[in-house]
Amino acid sequence: MTIALDRYIADMIILHEVCHLIYANHADEFWNLMSALMPDIEERKKILKKVTQNIDFRNFYS
Ligand SMILES: [Zn+2]
Question: Whole domain around residue 20: which residue ranges?
């Protein structure tokens, strides 16, 4: 299965993983760091949710 993502969204996912090098969780400090580095994070999260809402992830790794 291949998912093509716009660079705008891909950058958010990459930053998410980089922030996990500092915080290995999703606590408030993690999201505060994400927001500080990417002020429009909430808008990007909304877009990601919208474009993935109809994807069936049950067979994602098969
Ligand atoms: Zn995470």
Answer: 7-54
